[in-house]
Amino acid sequence: MQLDEVELLLKCNINSEVNHLMEGLRLGLQGDREKTSSVLGRLSNFRGQAYIENLPPYLTVQMMRFFYKADVQQKAKILRKVNFPLTLDIFELCSDQLRSKLEGPRAAFKEAEDVRLAVETDKKKQKLENQEQHDVDQSESMKDSNVGDVSGGQYQGELTGRYDLIGVLTHKGRSADSGHYVSWVKQDDGQWIQFDDDNMIPRKEEDVLALSGGGDWHMAYILLYKAQRVPRDFT
Q1: Domain total in the chain
Q2: How far out from the chain centre does Cα 194 lie?
């Protein structure tokens, strides 16, 4: 981030106008800062805007649902529904310098994804046309000839600014001083598992997306994203 600040996570601020994660992240990167005004010749408050200058392999996002209510002198929880994506693209939150560095890897990633989707489409089409015949050698030959060298070249393994959701920590309950915390973790095979004390419960993606809040059910408090990198191969 700019202004020589080091943050270990992104914060999603929540107010009456925030309905989506990106809106809260933009709000979380804003803030009032006290700086010396050359015009006034004294310290003054300025509305600041921070940008991300370096990308981590794993991105942690904190949903700012707990706050202190000064009027009643107690902690409270924001129940408002805030949708979050399975794939998060934070390109617009990056500094101009970082964006320029990401352009190459992002283009390489898109090219690799286009080829992968084309290969999958060809394989599905071939399977439908030859349901009773499986020619493994022909299938592998098609895969090699279609993919070619689209692994990104100099951008192999580089970050793209896109992140896939792999874990969620949720809080259930209306009180900030009580409730139940549960973890939801995506497995290597794509299956989601809810870890609730000693119970391991298989879940679907729609179950995870339903953790956006708005009621008494579990709602996301911490989101963990893993960086998408330019693929090295398609094996």
Answers
A1: 1
A2: 19
